[in-house]
Amino acid sequence: MRVLVVDDDPSGRYLLESIIRSGGHEVLSAVNGEDALVVARSLPPDIVITDILMPKMDGYQLCRVWKSDAELCAIPLVFYTASYTDPADERFADGLGGDAFWRKPLDPTSILDRIEHIASKPEGCATAVRAPAMTDETEILQEYNERLVHKLEGKANDLENANVELKRAMEILAEEVSVKANLIAQLNSDVIERKRVEAELRKERDHTVLQAAALESAADAIAIIDDGGLITWANQAFGTLTGYLPEEYVGMSVNRLTSDAGPAADYRTALSSAQTDQTWQGETIGCRKDGSRYYEALTVARVLGRDNADGRYIMVKRDISGSRQLEQLRSGFVANVSHELRTPLTSILGFADVLGHLKPEALPERAPQVVSKIRENAGRMKQLVEELLEVTTMQEEGIRILRRQVDLEQTVRTHAELVHRDPDHPLTIDVEGELPMIPCDSDRLGRVVENLVGNAVKYSPEGGPIRIMLSTADDEVLVAIRDEGIGIAPEDVPRLFDRFTQGDMSSTRSFGGVGIGLFVADQIVHAHGGRIEVASVPGKGSTFTVHLPLGEKE
């Protein structure tokens, strides 16, 4: 028996195809209704099993065309869905002439039994298929719109619940930041207490020896500075933080701990405050020996001698780059997600309002256009939510790789063609020599190809060719994706594969998205034991090269 499977979800389609093949049946596949009609008219199936929520032409639309086609109407059509599961959805499918309505998921045995039952014809009966019960176009269109709006409302509610969870997560993060702030404040208090204890110890013992013994093992970077701003002593943590050896930092001016562009004035202000017996506390930017910068919490206080004029100061430094970057990431992430969700949601609400105010006589002409816009924006929201959930899953559970021997060229071609491109972005795929089969997860690597090709199109706003080159080198296979777009600034390359990061993270950025495509691609490639390299020239384009091992790495 020949079965046509129609589903835009690659994983769901692959699972259903595998189950059907296990029953000894031949399988045809399509990613939407338009594709299914082309396949069926070229090689008619014995039965078609279709999802409902699909791009271009959904299952309901496919059923209407299918039942009105003189050649295809004799072939049973079955709905198999996980989204349209309400009784009203099933009634509408039944009215369109659907021969069966199955709700996902079904176990393999049940699927195979149902296929045999649907495909079997009673004795003496020319056909076992059903004819549409609904024939009035206005009635069909009205019911179709109601089903679609109902489903969009459900998706909007789901998104609202997701936003509530996201807000709760942000509140938890804010609480954690507050806790860390309290810990820093406690540290500052501890430093003051330590100063008092040291003053008492100096009355009985030599200041230099006891101070070094007491502070050497401290986790914070601590240094003693003389009245001229020169370092006279520092603990081991100070050397670890700044990168200087003891023979280098002893006698060194404290102002060398800031970069040329850094706020050296903060150090001078801190010392001036300490000279008037005021403890200075604040955040500034420190500079290591190698020139790298970091955010630091800085405390400077006067070390009092027996005559209260010892002329030395204690400096406590702590690297807080992690917490600052976390705060910046959180702010940027919330802003990006809010912007990306608000835009399509506003469009959906606007078009839904237009649809609700259309006069009955205008429905046949205007409704399909309005519904198309609603579906397009809902798809954008669905894609964004699924991407966010995918990143969360990767962080919590890692990536599961289902390896099998794969024709990489076919995988690259198939998924590259799925990316929407305008005519001014011609795509070419060049293969150098013969590529061997490689052990990999074709669906996962297909996602990498789609992400990289999609970026090549997005960041080539003026057009230009997209070229994919496949080759082998040593024990690796290389997939290089090249564009002639805007390129990437050198300072942005090191953080390209971070979560929620884009080259332009400003509020006036020109490109959409929340910056997780390259993160996902990098995680998938690393899970295969490979890596991604980037070569880019601003204004001339970029090349992303995926290196994959020919054999499976441990």
Please, could you describe this protein's structure?
Helix 6 runs parallel beside helix 12 (363-397). A hairpin with a 2-residue loop joins strand 14 (466-473) and strand 15 (476-482). The two termini are 42 Å apart. This protein has a five-stranded parallel sheet, sandwiched between helices. It has a five-stranded antiparallel sheet with strand order 7-6-10-9-8, sandwiched between helices. Mean pLDDT is 81; it is low at 123-127 and 503-514. It is an alpha/beta fold and 554 residues long. It contains 15 helices and 17 strands.
Number of beta-strand segments: 17
Instruction: Name the average pLDDT.
Output: 81
Range of strand content: 15-25%
Strand order of the largest sheet: 2-1-3-4-5
Terminal residue distance: 42 Å
* Count, helices: 15
- Pick out the low-confidence regions: 123-127, 503-514
How many strands, which pairing sense, and closed or not: the largest β-sheet? 5 strands, parallel
Shape: elongated
Which structural class fits the helix and strand makeup?
alpha/beta
**What integer value in Å does the Rg equal?**
33 Å
User: Helical percent range?
Assistant: 40-55%
Spell out the key features of this protein.
five-stranded antiparallel sheet; single chain; 554 residues; 15 helices; 17 strands; five-stranded parallel sheet; elongated; alpha/beta
Topology:
Layout: E1 2-6, H1 10-22, E2 26-30, H2 33-42, E3 47-50, H3 59-68, E4 77-81, H4 87-95, E5 100-103, H5 108-119, H6 137-202, H7 207-215, E6 221-226, E7 231-234, H8 236-242, H9 246-249, H10 264-275, E8 280-287, E9 293-303, E10 312-319, H11 321-356, H12 363-397, E11 404-406, H13 408-418, E12 427-431, E13 438-440, H14 442-458, E14 466-473, E15 476-482, H15 517-527, E16 531-537, E17 541-549
Helix pairs in contact: 2-3, 6-11, 6-12, 11-12, 12-15, 13-14, 14-15
